[in-house]
Design brief:
It is built from 12 helices and 8 strands. The chain is of the alpha+beta class. The longest helix has about 35 residues.
Amino acid sequence: MSAELEQFREEVRAWCADNVPRDWRQSQTGATEKEFVAFQKAWFATLHSAGYAVPHWPREWGGGMSVGEQVVLYQELAAHDAPRLVLAFVGIHHAASTLLVAGTDEQRARHLPAILDGEIWVQGFSEPEAGSDLASLRTSARREGDHYIVNGQKLWASGGMHADWCLLLARTDPDAPKRKGISYFLLDMTTPGVEVRPIRNAIGDSHFCEIFLNDVRIPAANLVGAENAGWQVAQATLGAERGMTMLELAERLGNAGFNWLLQSSPIDDPVVADKLAQFEIEITGLRGMCRKVVEDSENPANGVTGPADASIVKLFYSELLQRMTDFGAEIGGLAAHTELAKPMSSGWESGAWVLDFIGSWEWTIPGGASEIQRTIIGERGLGLPREPSAV
């Protein structure tokens, strides 16, 4: 590692020692929704004031860190057990990536500074009959003057009850082939006709939501990209979900997650020691893949990002997360199955193993289930024949 990166590490390490809340796990365990939102916004503001909130953004928008600096930042945040940016996640990754790739100058100028000021976003893609087969969505948008009239329902909208804005896919041409008639919109969640209903999940919280849209009027200026070209725009969003976000998540899994396993494990047992060694090997591979995908996407001179690279990373991370949390629940003893409390601002590797394992299914199902990722890898990455249509 270069002297510059070592110096940067010392700066981040010193900042974390002074600024990561020492009691956040206690205060966020059993916190109310109001307390959770207030804590999240305050932690985001703290990171933003230090220049650490959006290191992956372009420099002119408050980012500009090299991939090496981003890795160091995420390593130190994980090593100091920093809270995760739960509420800001969609805004700083999905929304920002979409706006930077396909948004207008006006859309970027309106929303990127607002995200840095705490604007919260939700992703309105999946529907009751359009999950992994997202192109089957049926939410409709009809042009009427300088607005679109939107009707439909979205499902599994994480954090929807707290969101200010929504990344919305809707069908604008019902007669076009599935991927040809979809448009991409920015939806103000305070618009009349928008109703959000939280869904209580298996671990007892209401992170997921349904969004109902009844004659919702979206200004035509909130269309991202061309009408009926929303599927192409959505790839920027999905690319962020399966690619850029993994750099941070890999470090959290490899640092905090692996350390929790070490603390829970009887490492003098040779079977357990062998399992831990295997996890460490896989984490090393995951870190390397994440770094290469991000480096190649930011600097094409390093290499060309393959059409399935992001899917490979997403698949590997999600299934490794599931295996590690499953193992944690297996070796954690009675406490792992009876002490069912998890801080609200933690990640999927909090050390509350049973809850972490149940939560890990959020990664092997949403954002394209593991089966879908394998299909993408086979068809786009390996050039295998496409699966026959079910129709």
